[in-house]
Design goal:
heterodimer; A: about 325 residues; MetI-like fold; about 0% strand; B: about 300 residues; mainly alpha
Chain lengths: ~325, ~300
């Protein structure tokens, strides 16, 4: 329990740091970007909106600390500011539309690549020196060298444009989100395949290679020799003795990987015009919508922190050392 | 001395293996051709010198872009810009990571605690959104690119080097140095640092890969310097001129493969270096050379099993 409490405290601190960075960034970066932003919009916005914008970027007479307190209060109330490109709309409204789709794509692809990669790694280590063990590492290394968005471009061109096996973008066929029926779910899954496949392909390598190396370490342990010597079936040795232990480093890496995969996912979404957060991010960048960018940064960071916390909790279930209070 | 030995043995062992040779050759071709861009590029990379999205021909070996520029020339000049920025970022992040890790190892106690905490916070915050926000508030250009990716890219190295320093600290020769009464900075600089050579080298290579991909990602989003030709900006323009839907695959395959091949060749080299540091991964090859036939999956002492 102490372990979980410690992790929670750490993630709260990380969240606080992210929020604080977000506050000070437009105020302290050289060249006074805040004034530039306000100046750009001074002709297009009305008086009230302009004042709101000035307040959001600290161009008021209020002292810094009281701005900071107001800002923290706003964040706690879920008020992340207003979008500049669609002015009165709060950024949270724009973000929440894409949030669910990003979570769906992210969860699917991270879990798929984790399970698939760990299985392939275990297999490679178990059949060491075999054909698969020889071929898999270089092939995965090669795929892993592709930036996410480049592989996405290639697959999009090949499967969606040339062969037309998969739809060219979007998350569903109709104008409105499909109903929660078999057909509707099938439609959503059909649109999910190409972007998820891209992410799985690029992120598969580390899982496989880490699992393989961890397995090789575990396989040299005495207790495995004992398990084999006392006549356990190979399958039993593999699953209950070797894989279970070798999986731990991969679970630890899962938390760290979520952030990275999510970053890659945002770019993949842009290529496939998948309506997730990546799309909002591109819109924010291309229309220089600073509040939207900042809100995306905060919301993505907070989500990743939550995901990490969940992984840490799962870790406690897997590693008895942590459960009994020792450090892992 | 230790560093020299590591490098010497690495060279001896590594160049016997095919992956490293393949990696080195690919890397040499890419770096070499980019370095010679001024002399071998057929056209000005920024000028329209042909039709729009022309298929590769003798006149334009890699075709032309959606704005009529020569893709080959862009690839060569783009490589130059991409690689020097990536190299600078890799040097800076490695240095920063080393400074943080060695400071933690030197001062120990609360300084170590604070630095570890800062490192972990940087590790857990997802990089791309942070990079985007940072880059958006700073004026676009190579300096911003270098600054932003250095700030966001050092944390993993600091953690790696710190744990390496901690495990080295337990060794006898450090204890011996302490007993002899060597000062702490001397232990860190003379005993600790040289023994971390192979880890630092491997990390540096990884950082070049990170810098190339992160830079390209940022430019692909449109946060690069529009006036510069880089592999990332080539991809950005390919996407923005709808090259995909017009079937102009050469405009994104060329820069994309350039990035992927650079990263792949570096990864090949790195993997071999990694294997040198991890004897277990090498055990198989050694066993086979010794004439041992492997009959079981577990790696117990092979002599007993097959005797």
């Amino acid at each position: 329990m102490l372990y979980i409490a410690k992790r929670l405290a750490f993630y709260l601190l990380a969240a606080f740091v992210a929020i604080t960075v977000n506050f000070f960034l437009p105020r302290l970066t050289p060249g006074d970007p805040a004034s530039t932003i306000v100046a750009t919009y001074s002709t297009t916005l009305n008086e009230a909106s302009l004042n709101a914008l000035k307040a959001a970027y600290g161009l008021t007479n209020e002292p810094l600390w009281s701005q900071y307190v107001t800002y923290l209060g706003n964040i706690l109330h879920g008020d992340f500011g207003r979008s500049l490109s669609n002015f009165p709309a709060p950024v949270t409204a724009i973000i929440s539309a894409g949030f669910g789709w990003s979570i769906l794509l992210g969860l699917t692809s991270v879990l798929l690549s984790f399970v698939l990669g760990s299985a392939l790694g275990a297999l490679a280590a178990w059949r060491r020196g075999g054909l698969f063990d020889k071929l898999a590492p270089p092939v995965l290394l090669f795929l892993g060298s592709f930036p996410y968005f480049f592989l996405a471009l290639l697959l999009f061109y090949l499967f969606c444009f040339k062969l037309q096996w998969f739809p060219m973008g979007n998350a569903y066929s109709s104008v409105n989100p499909p109903p929660f029926t078999l057909n509707g779910i099938g439609d959503v899954l059909f649109h999910l395949i190409a972007p998820a496949f891209t992410i799985v392909l690029v992120s598969l390598g580390p899982w496989t290679l880490n699992m393989r190396n961890a397995m090789i370490g575990v396989l040299s342990e005495d207790y495995l020799t004992l398990a084999e010597a006392k006549g356990l079936k190979p399958r039993r040795v593999l699953f209950s003795h070797a894989v279970r232990t070798a999986l731990l480093p991969n679970v630890t890496a899962l938390g760290a990987a979520i952030g990275g995969v999510f970053s890659g996912q945002l770019l993949t979404e842009i290529v496939f015009t998948y309506p997730g957060l990546g799309y909002s991010l591109m819109r924010a960048v291309s229309s220089v919508d600073y509040p939207l960018m900042q809100a995306l940064f905060l919301i993505i960071t907070l989500s990743v922190l939550v995901a990490n916390f969940v992984v840490d909790t799962v870790y406690v279930l897997l590693d008895p050392r942590v459960r009994t209070g020792q450090e892992a | 001395m230790a560093l020299y030995d590591t490098l010497a043995s690495a060279r001896r062992k590594a160049f016997g293996s095919i992956p490293v040779t393949v990696g080195a050759v690919i890397l040499l071709i890419l770096v070499g051709s980019s370095a010679l861009a001024q002399w071998i590029a057929p056209y000005n990379p920024k000028r329209a010198t042909g039709g729009i999205n022309e298929f590769p021909s003798l006149k334009h070996l890699f075709g032309t872009t959606g704005q009529g520029q020569d893709v080959l020339s862009q690839f060569l000049y783009g490589g130059q810009n991409t690689l020097w920025i990536a190299f600078t970022i890799a040097v800076l992040t490695t240095l920063l990571a080393l400074i943080v890790a060695l400071t933690a190892a030197y001062f120990r106690g609360w300084v170590d605690d604070v630095l570890t905490l800062v490192t972990n916070v940087f590790l857990v915050i997802p990089s791309l959104p942070l990079i985007v926000v940072l880059a958006a508030f700073l004026p676009p250009g190579p300096l911003t690119m270098i600054a932003v990716l250095t700030i966001t890219g050092w944390a993993f190295g600091a953690r790696l080097f710190r744990s390496q320093a901690l495990s080295l600290r337990e060794r006898e020769f450090i204890a011996a140095a302490e007993d002899v009464g060597e000062r702490r900075w001397r232990i860190v600089a003379i005993e600790l640092l040289p023994n971390m050579g192979s880890v630092v080298a491997a990390y540096f290579v990884n950082q070049v890969i990170f810098a190339i991909t992160a830079q390209a990602s940022l430019e692909f989003l449109g946060l690069g310097d529009g006036g510069q030709v880089t592999w990332g900006s080539m991809l950005f323009w390919a996407q923005n001129t709808s090259a995909l839907i017009r079937g102009a695959w050469w405009t994104f395959v060329v820069p994309g493969m350039a990035i992927a091949l650079t990263a792949f060749s570096l990864a090949l080299i790195n993997n071999a270096v990694d294997e040198l540091g991890n004897p277990r991964l090498r055990a198989d090859r050694l066993l086979r050379r010794a004439g041992v036939r492997k009959s079981s999956a577990s790696l117990m002492t092979p002599v007993k099993r097959n005797a």
